[in-house]
Amino acid sequence: MKLANRIITFVLVVALLFTGMGTTVEKVLNDVKLGLDLQGGFEVLYEVESLVDGQKITQDVLADTTTALDNRINEFGVSEPSIQIEGEDRIRVQLAGLADQDSARELLSSTANLTFRDVNDNILLDGTDLKEGGASPSFDQQNQPIVTLTLKDAAKFAEVTQKVMSMGAPNNLLVVWLDFEEGVDSYAEESKKPPEEQKFVSAASVTQVLNTTDVMISGNFTVDETKNFASILNAGSLPVKLTEIYSTSVGAQFGEDALNDTVFAGVVGVLLIFLFMLFYYRLPGFISIITLSVFTYLVLIVFNGINAVLTLPGIAAIVLGIGMAVDANILTAERIREELRVGHSVKDAYKLGSKQSLSAIIDAQLTTLLAAAVLFYYGTSSVKGFATTLIISILLSFVTAVWGSRVLQGLLVNSGYFNNPAWFGISRSKQHSIDEGITSLDLTTKFDKLDFVGNRKKFYAISTIILVAGIVVLGIFKLNLGIDFSSGTRVEIKSDTALVQEEVKDYLDEIGFANEDVVISGDNQKIAVMRYKDDFSQQQVLDFKEQVNEKYGHEPSLSTVSATVGKELAKNAMYALALAALGIIIYVAVRFEWRMGLGAIVSLLHDVFFIIVIFSMLRLEVDITFIAAVLTIVGYSINDTIVTFDRIRENIDRHEEITTKEELALIVNKSLRQTMGRSVNTVLTVIIVVIALIFLGAPSIQNFSIALLIGLVTGIYSSICIAAQVWYSLKCREMDKKGTSVVKKEKKQWGSDEPQV
Questions:
Q1: What region holds the Protein translocase subunit SecDF P1 domain (predicted)?
Q2: How many CB atoms lie within 10 A of CB 288?
Q3: CA atoms within 13 A on the CB side of 87
Q4: Cα gap 422→427, rounded to integer Å
Q5: Beta strands in 180-238 (DSSP E)
Q6: What's the topology of domain 41-110+243-250?
């Protein structure tokens, strides 16, 4: 019986979804908060140190410091800055979309300890005597830039001026200092220097008692200097000293180009996925296009809802999340196609396929979620943004790719208008009769000639050769560690015309930043990349940016990492990988059995090692985003492994008991052949996106994308040729040792069975 009302309901639901998205998507996109790598800006990690002996850096001191920093940032009108306390003595500041980065850096790190002193350096007034917001830039009668101050107590200022005046010429000077260092600075020494080199702000003669709250500070100021000076005073003095130990600065043009390139690459990749799904899976593919569109929209909605910041790796995570969400659609579609082939009707095949695929989907997504959570905990900055987006993507894929797809597909299937298996990519000639008693285990596949178990020793040999060769390669080439792990400074210079390596080298030598390691990159050779072993000081950063901007017309992107932070990032990266691997092996061991968990870990280590070796051979830079890529592959590769193990377990359950190694080998081989098509198609969809990111995306995530590509390819091999074979070998050893058989185990959570001896 055909039910037209199901079709009408489907059309209304889809129309409602796309109407809602179409009318609000512009606002949603406008509300997305872009990270500094997408709109320019800078990020700096400060180490907080005491200004005086005996002062302890407590959480209260850090809180006071963040308040003072926030007040200073407000002077620049930055919308929604990020100021976070990290650990016991660090503060991270992120300012995206800031045009005047140089002034902001100076403003943030200046302690702004304003003092009025006599020529003997005795303190007479300090910043606490200044009225809140009482500093402002102005001009004197000769139209020279000055700073005007409003004090709290006129009587106190009269007392101070009386004391200074009584000292007599030439000692009747009221000296204004910013950040006077006791025991280091002195007026006597500074006054001997040329005016432009003197550390004090001004030294004015006092010839009369001034009973007023209005004070003018004059000096050799520019207009911009008076503005900054006033801003610093109004923001208040910091209770501590701030030392930069990590910073990254991205020019606005770099951010805009990165955003445009990566969004374009993502759109191309996703459209290719849509075409593949529609062509190969027909009706389920059409449903997946709808749900993936809703999925992308919901990711942005949730992202905005939690006030997250979208970074460049974050965009890659959204695009990657789309590819991973396809996995659930493909798993279900492949199961439905199998049930159609054994002779079930479309309705029955849909019900059975949806039910049977749920266990593998949940297990695969949970392990990926575990890797993403570890990455979020140990990640910093843009990597944390990547992990946040990945977590959101995984959670929402349950809503759309699992629940949403089944609701929409159920409406069409149960309408009775799609009873032809051709709607699912299955021709009548490939469909058996249900009376034949054929099970999915009996179905032929495109890979029936492949004997995976029989060739396991060859796979072991190949992997052993890779292991030995990889150790040799690493011993010779080592890793090309980026500044994230080795410390130092990385610079990108952008030009409107093609750059020549030698000319850039000569220019860097000319401005005092000589570097022989200049690499010209970009589609039109308009970007120069270089690394310095030393981490630039704040002043070096400001000087470099000013000169390069003047020469090439674009503010360079610059990242600097101290040796301390570099070691910490490396340590955290190792912790992240170890914890993710441990969590996965525990989960797989509980859900399946410990031998499958061991096989999964062996295959994951195989993937990670292979990525590291390739990066070493190609001399690709290993930075913090590389770790993000490796952890993503750890999560994604385990998907393939779990789907494989899930099918092995299911097929063992159908046989109730397996008494010989030959019979077990047959089950493993058939299970691998059955999941091979799904594995290839799933990885292919993600590879499409990754290749788009490599060739069309921003250069700054190119290595990240390359690591993903390598991991995806090796992931298929390791899941089938390593993980499953390790499990088979361990099972055979146990059968030989104990003389037992593999039997069905009682069902556990997710409604699945698992084999055990």
A1: 64-121
A2: 30
A3: 12
A4: 5
A5: 202-205, 214-218
A6: Alpha-Beta Plaits (3.30.70)
The alpha carbon of 473 is separated from its chain's Cα centroid by a whole number of angstroms, namely: 29
H or E element that contains 34 = strand 33-34
pLDDT grade, residue 78 (50/70/90)?
low
Across the strands, what pairs with 83? 93
Which pLDDT band, with edges at 50, 70 and 90, does 38 fall under?
A: confident
Name the helix (H) or strand (E) containing 92.
strand 90-96
Question: What global pTM score does this model have?
Answer: 0.74
What does the pLDDT look like over 713-748, one tens digit per residue?
A: 888 888 889 999 999 999 888 888 876 666 655 444
Name the CATH topology of 488-561. Alpha-Beta Plaits (3.30.70)
For the packed helices 594-618 and 456-477, what is the interaxial angle rounded to 10 degrees? 40
Does 380 score more than 70 pLDDT?
A: no
Domain 114-237 sits in CATH 3.30.1360.200? yes
Contacts of 157-164 with C-beta under 8 Å, sequence gap 24+, read: 157/125, 157/129, 157/210, 157/211, 157/212, 157/213, 157/215, 158/209, 158/210, 158/211, 158/212, 160/116, 160/124, 160/125, 161/206, 161/208, 161/209, 161/210, 162/209, 163/118, 163/124, 164/118, 164/124, 164/206
Of 434, 393, 175, 188, nearest to 298 by C-alpha is 393
**Alpha-carbon distance 143 to 66, whole Å?**
37
Question: Could you tell me if 753 and 592 are in contact, meaning their C-beta atoms sit under 8 angstroms apart?
Answer: no
Give the residue among 729, 683, 713 at the shortest CA–CA distance from 606.
713
* 538-552 and 101-109 helices, crossing angle to 10°: 170
Strands 90-96 and 41-49: antiparallel
CA distance 478 to 534: 20
The architecture in CATH of the region 453-478+573-743 reads: Up-down Bundle (1.20)
Strand partners, 138: 146
* Tens digit of each residue's pLDDT (9 = 90 or more) over 384-436: 777 787 788 888 888 887 888 999 999 999 988 898 999 998 988 888 888 88
